[in-house]
Amino acid sequence: MSRYIAPQLRQKVAERAKYCCEYCRIPEIAAMLKFQVEHIISLQHGGKTVLSNLAYACPICNANKGPNVGTVLPDEETFVRFFNPRKHEWNDHFEVENGLIVSKTAIGQGTINILGFNSIDKVLERQVLIEIGKYP
């Protein structure tokens, strides 16, 4: 299957996400780089280039997620799938405390760990955006 995503489909994905990363929820307007349309389930895992399998993602979340669909938690025994913006409610898995994204579930924990939600730069950026009423 082609990696090409038609402009009309790309626009639908961006509009559905309200031009925010569907993982870390940062608004595109605050980012230095253009956001990307990513496959929630990657092509190599059988995902398709259809609206129901696409998410709007900031370049950092997209790069960190790569083609992965999940991770092993720090106990080294528990495999969890990543947060899926088509199947999960963000607030069921995460909450924001002073710019820090905190997990409520194992899915949240795995997603936070691998996508790098809480690097110091991301936390500081969210704190500023919260102060000016632009996050989430």
Low-pLDDT residue intervals, each spanning 5 or more residues: none
State which percent range the strand residues make up. Answer: 15-25%
Number of domains: 1
What percent of the residues sit in helical stretches (DSSP H or I)? 25-40%
Largest sheet: 2 strands, antiparallel
Helix-strand sequence? HEEHEEHEEHH
Rg over C-alpha atoms, rounded to the nearest angstrom: 15 Å
Number of strands: 6
Would you tell me the structural class of the helices and strands? alpha+beta
Shape: globular
Q: For the terminal residues, how far apart are their CA atoms?
A: 34 Å
Provide the spatial order of strands within the biggest beta sheet: 1-2
Number of helices: 5
Mean pLDDT: 95
Brief summary:
The chain is an alpha+beta fold and 136 residues long. Helix content is 32%, strand content 16%.
Supply the key terms.
136 residues; alpha+beta; two-stranded antiparallel sheet; two-stranded antiparallel ribbon; 5 helices; 6 strands; globular
Please provide a written account of the structure.
With 136 residues, the protein is of the alpha+beta class. It has one domain. The protein has five helices and six strands; from the N terminus they run H-E-E-H-E-E-H-E-E-H-H. A hairpin with a 6-residue loop joins strand 3 (70-72) and strand 4. It is globular, with a radius of gyration of 15 Å. The N and C termini lie far apart (34 Å).
Helix-strand blueprint:
Elements: H1 7-16, E1 36-39, E2 54-57, H2 59-65, E3 70-72, E4 79-81, H3 90-93, E5 94-97, E6 100-103, H4 106-115, H5 120-131
Antiparallel strand pairs: 1-2, 3-4, 5-6
